Structures are given as structure tokens and as C-alpha cells.
């Protein structure tokens, strides 16, 4: 018997373990507050269980339709006619269905699951169904596999399905774009991938990726022999769904010394107000980012979980921006757009602070200590601080007796190697005036701005006092090492 099913429904996909349907249903019920009268307890749909399907607009269920389903399409449609929202999922496998609009949920492995349906030729209604990832920070994993008569080629760019960023279509009559697992010498004309780029513990032939322009999904590269990402030379467009999840992961690639990802226009995030994250971890000890690459990542609004890198000697293409390497406030030029090195403002430097009026990027720590400054207005142009040395805090405000306001209200983001620490200590007037608010240096109006400027505050003005001599010794020793290395190369 061939079955045709067609209905419109919102589906909240819940992660579950394919095959253990009773456990899957329990997971659904545990994840949401539910109306007991709207729970379908039978999972498999047949002529016996359909009688117990809840007549609710929102139904909590794992619905399984397979070769044992002894109902016509009209009977199934009638049984589900009152449902417009499903919390759970639908599995269609080894069925006799020819046309339908059905979803499944298997967040960790399968997601939307349509498999081995020999007569299936039409799933066009999939583009009319809205998928929500439930309580997951990432997207719904969708797989349409081994349906020999099904043409998926154009459907994946239509309707709600076009928003999917973790879509696998293999073994069908025609599939959507290319699957990374299928990219080989016979697929070098691929211009799009619909389930991201996931290269895990493989030896990569980079020539197979040279024509990819569109990536839908995360880029996850682990345990490879890659040295950089220049093989994605045609990459221009990137679509993800991320609510504070990692979309760019470079991890455990021991030969990777450079980034070299071509510049893309932007990252389109289908999660409303979602935050996209990056992680660069356990790469080659010499892995470095040029300043232009770092600014590119900042422009993409891509904060880091870990950034185990250093700055390259070559700053890259920074356009007309003026780069200054910091040695002291006295020697700093007047027109710096970018300052490279830990910015130290100390006693006697007060009159030189006007040199910072144009500074937009600080690639180093910000240290203000023992000054007579009353405010930090000269830092108003600075939007980003990036420090790749976590041996000492990225921000240090210490013993500035006349400072009345330590707010860095115009800072857009703080990026560190891993630790996110600030020391605020012995700034007497500031502490007396603002009390407990002395540890809030930034004005955050959105969840994103709060996330990218978050710091762990220490020091006497915020809590336990810090041994300043120890911090100063670490900083001084590192500076001495840098000078020694520079002298070594000079001579």
C-alpha cells in the first residue's frame, strides 16, 4: 500500500536516541512542561494506536511511521488533523509512502530522519514546515537518505528548509549541493555544502574544496594535517544557526601554523540574537594571526572560547590604518590607529595620553598605574582590546588616586587567549564614589555586548587584594625576554 501524507505543523525538535522510542518520549516529556492529555504514548502509528492520538493543537510525541503502518495517507492525516505544533519528532523509515511532509528529531545523530522509503518521490511540503531546535543551542540535524526516487536538488533552497545549516542528503535520486563526506575528485565542481565542513582525523586533499562558495553549517577541523585554511579560496558566504555555540573550531591540528581563511562578507546567523563562537586550540606552537586577520575576525563578531595563538610579525593588509609598536608613552607617535604591545600608562605619562585619541585597536594589555589621571577620555576611540598573553590580566587599573571614572564605555569587545581577568586596586576616589559598581567597566546593552566584554574582576577595589609586585615581575620578565629575542635577531 502506498501512502500520501500532507499537513502543516510547527515542530520543536528534541534530541533523542534513535531506536529506543520509549526513552525518547520520556526525554521529550522531561524537557517541557506538558499537558498530560496532549501526550501520545505509543510512538508507532498504526490502526490501533491512532485512536489514542491526542486531539490537541500542541502534541508531545515521537511518531514512528514504517513498514508496519497499516493506515492510508487519508487516515493518518485525519488522525493528526488538530495538531499544528509537535514537540518531539517524526520518523519515516522503510515505509510505502509516496508523498508526505514529515520531520524527525535526533539532535546528536539524525535530526529530520527520512530514510529508505522506496516509493517516495515528493517531499515538497518540507519547505512549509518550521523547525525549531527546542532547547539546543545549535541547529536541527536533518538527514534525508537512500530514497531512490526522491529529487532533493532544488528543495533545499526553498522555504524554511533553506534556513537549515545541518542538512545531509545522500543516496537519493538527486541530493542538495555536496556533502563534505562525498567531496572527492569526482565532486570538484561543488559550490555549496549543506552540512558544514567537518574534517575529523583525516588526511585532506585540499584541491577538492577549491570551488566551495557557500557553507551552510559549522566549520569543524580536528586532528588533520592541514597547515592553514587557504584551500577554501572561493569561500564567500556562510550561514549558521548558533545560540552561543562554536561554529569555527580549529583543534588538535599540529601542523597548522597560519589561519589564511579568505575574507567572507559576513556570517548569517539564523538564530535570532544568537552568539557565534570560535575555538583555536592545540595547534602548532608557532600558529599566528596577522593583525589584519584578527581585525577581520572582530568584524565578523566572532568571540573566542580559546585563542591559542600569537600575532604574526607581518601585520598583513591593514589598509591606511597607522600601526605603532608600543615601547613607552613618551616614544609613542601622535597618530596611531593601532597599538601593538602592552599599553602602559604610568606616573609622568599623563600629558602624553592625548596620543591615544585616535587609537581604535589595542593588541596588548591595558595597564594604568600610579597616575594622576582623573578620567580615561583619551581612550574613547578604542573599540577593541586583544591580548594573547594570559600570564597577567588584560586590564590593570592600580593606584590611580584621582581617577573618578574608570568606565571604558566605548569598548566593543575584549578578546583574550583564554583567561579573562582584570585587576582594580587602590583607586581610592573611584571606589569611594561608585562603591560596588567599581568593577563594572563597560556599558552592555545586549547579551552579545555583555558576553564579549565580560571579565573576572579581582583586586582590593573588587574583593581580595592582589600582590602587585608579583604581577609586575611577570610583566617585566616577559618584556625582557622580548627585548633579548629582538637583540638576538638584530645581531
Automatic annotation (TrEMBL):
Superkingdom of this protein's organism: Eukaryota
A Pfam family per the record: Recep_L_domain
Family annotation (InterPro entries): Rcpt_L-dom, SPS2_domain
Keywords per UniProt: Signal
Domain Receptor L-domain: 189-295, 335-429
Signal sequence extent: 1-19
Protein name: Receptor L-domain domain-containing protein
